[in-house]
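Quick log. Single chain, no ligands specified.
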Amino acid sequence: MLPAISLDMDGVICTPFLGRNIAISRTLTVPPLPAGVREAAVDRRRAYQRLRRRWETVRYMGRKPLPGTREGLEALSQVRRLVLVTGRSSFARHLIDGWLQRYELAGMFADVLPNNTDLSGPQFKLWTAMRLGHAEHVDDDGSVAFFLANHGVRVFLRDWPRNRGLPYPTGVRVYHRLEQVAEALTSS
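-> predicted structure:
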């Protein structure tokens, strides 16, 4: 079996809101992981669930795959087992699954893991990498790249204007197309 690589969703395989990646964090200070992480309990209040699902639907409507996503994922799947690890809430799981199916990308991922904890996005991605033994991750967020790389995860960072110019550790490699990640993994 191929080693796993985790990939973020928004800004990596999915277009950001209005095509501009303004949600990228440039904050380099992320609190350490807490001693115990518990998965969030499902809130059983129907009104809350409906409201939260509507919010997630509005937040992510109209997004399309970034150019070259299919080709990049196909190239990556030749050298790694793909796992989608997103900071999106587990309330958006049905939207994530629907989006992947709509664009015929669902079969490319061995697993899809939305954030079902109270952890921040960077913390959730590190916790998931540690828990599952993922040594490599693809993201678009400077904060995530900095945090994961400082904890020994090799990070491939999708180039966006907002994540440029930060003092990344040596474990961060910038790319422009997903195929470049596959090429780097093949040559290393």
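The chain is about 35% helix and 15% strand.
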